[in-house]
Amino acid sequence: MHGRGGERGDGRGIVFDFDGVIVDSEPLHEHACRVALRERGMDFTHEQFVEHCIGHGDRMAFLNLFKLNGREASDDEIAATKVRKSEVFLDGVRSAKLSPQPNAVELIRQSAEAGPIAVCTGSRRVEVEPILDRLGVLGLLETLVTADDVHRTKPDPACYLLAAERLGIAPGACVAIEDTPTGAQAALSAGYRVLAVCTTLPADRHTGAHRVVPDLSGIDVSALLGV
Predict the structure, then answer these.
(1) Residue 61: Cβ within 10 Å count
(2) Which residue spans of the chain are classified as CATH 1.10.150.240?
(3) How far apart are CA 64 and CA 83, in angstroms?
(4) Lesser CB count within 10 Å: N end or C end of the chain?
């Protein structure tokens, strides 16, 4: 991936977020985080996970969760907790079939036929690649940008700027599909247009997006490029 470059015929780029946009993986992330935290004598509520973890990379999520539990976290503790969380998450991927979001796989295929596409996620590569491969779309991507590729994850725009660079398309000519305000903020700060889907959070949380839809049902490439 990220070797061909170039632009689609109309010079626009399409970049998909992963968790919540392509697959319904947030419940598994929450479960994996809870297991990793409970093994260290901590816990959190679903509401706290939604508010302080969804849309953030694992490092920031665990910094938030440690703080909510009244604990200071060293870099080594955060790193070890991230590793444990990934182990539990990957066990879940192997034992459970994660469901793709409505029309997500079909839209990725249609978009790839029209030009180079990317996935830009705050999750780690080891958690994302197996699922994309299982869905049969990994090989359709021009590039996959993960938390492993940048120093700062969403809401920092670094990941979306890198995705546009690898696509060979100006950020202002790219549209991002996001399910969280944090992800949308990253894309907006990079100069993207943003389509928000309400698969994770309700419509009133997506105030910054250029267009908000319940999910990707009925969305085609033309609709994406018209955002």
Answers:
(1) 24
(2) 26-95
(3) 17
(4) N
How far is residue 14 from each of residues 132, 154, 212, measured CA to CA in Å? 16, 18, 16
**Contact call for residues 128 and 119 (beta carbons, < 8 A):** yes
- Note the pTM of the prediction, 2 decimals: 0.87
Cα(11)–Cα(32) distance, integer angstroms: 40
Alpha helix segments (H runs only) across 15-119: 26-38, 46-52, 58-68, 75-95, 104-114
CATH number for the domain formed by residue range(s) 13-24+99-225: 3.40.50.1000
Contact by Cβ (8 Å): 42, 61: no
Torsions phi, psi for 169 (to 5 deg): -130, 135
> What span, in angstroms and rounded, lies between the C-alpha atoms of 4 and 206?
33
Helix (H) or strand (E) holding 223: helix 221-225
Cβ neighbors of 106 (< 8 A, separation 6 or more) are none
User: For residue 76, with 0-12 CB atoms within 10 Å meaning exposed, 13-18 middle and 19 or more buried, which class applies?
Assistant: exposed
Domain 26-95, CATH:
1.10.150.240
Considering only the C-alpha atoms of the chain, give the largest distance between any 2 of them, rounded to a whole number of Å. 54
**Cross-strand bridge partners of residue 212:** 196
pLDDT at 44 over 60: yes
Is-contact 19 26, C-beta < 8 A? yes
Interval 59-70: pLDDT, tens: 999 999 999 999
C-alpha–C-alpha distance, residues 76 and 54, integer Å: 22
* Helix orientation angle between 75-95 and 26-38, rounded to the nearest 10 degrees: 130
